[in-house]
Design a protein that fits this description.
The protein is built from 3 helices and 9 strands; from the N terminus they run βαβββββαβαββ. A hairpin with a 2-residue loop joins strand 2 and strand 3. The chain is α+β, with helices and mostly antiparallel strands and 171 residues long. It comes from Hemiselmis andersenii. It catalyses: [protein]-peptidylproline (omega=180) = [protein]-peptidylproline (omega=0). It is an enzyme of class 5 (isomerase). Keywords: Isomerase, Rotamase.
């Protein structure tokens, strides 16, 4: 069984979404078919989408899309569970669950272990740049893995999980 670290946006304040009821699709084939129909005229840019997986195990659907969020490929986002369409905006307050890992798999922080989501306001400089960029692209309820290069990560050794400014981090 493969384990993923993830960020999950559980709430966005200042946005009051309403959503139509959706029926659950029973198979991966239906999901792939609907995806194909929905995005028939959508041009997928080679630089942004590198991987798209649709699979089924234990009757649960998994939709995984991997994309680069920056031109220099310094932040990679893998969508593990699609959200509900509402994205946080500047000065939105978000509540996220996360697990932070180093390249070697060592966990350095986790809101899940504390059972307490992290709450912060977008674009206020309270989190690393990779989070600011990555979380702004996420939808309410979305689960994703962010792979953040050192350029968008920890700038000061004292804040870094392994006392290095050259570490890649996974959330």
């Amino acid at each position: 069984m493969q384990t993923f670290s993830f960020i999950f946006i559980s709430s966005i304040k200042s946005v009051k979404p309403t959503f139509p009821k959706k029926s659950r699709m029973p198979t991966s084939l239906n999901l792939a078919s609907n995806f194909s129909k929905t995005y028939k005229n959508f041009e997928i840019k080679k630089k942004s989408v590198t991987n798209l997986k649709i699979s089924s195990s234990n009757n649960e659907e998994l939709f995984e899309k991997e994309e680069y969020l920056t031109e220099d490929k310094g932040i990679v986002k893998k969508i593990l569970k699609k959200g509900k369409g509402i994205k946080p905006q500047t000065q939105s307050t978000v509540k996220v669950h996360y697990t932070g890992k180093l390249e070697n798999g060592q966990v350095f922080d986790s809101s899940l272990d504390r059972k307490d989501p992290y709450v912060f306001e977008i674009d206020q400089g309270k989190v690393i740049k990779g989070w600011e960029i990555g979380i702004k692209t996420m939808e309410l309820g979305e689960k994703a893995e962010l792979i953040i290069s050192s350029k968008y990560g920890y700038k000061k050794k004292r804040n870094s999980p392994n006392n290095s400014t050259k570490c890649k981090t996974f959330f």
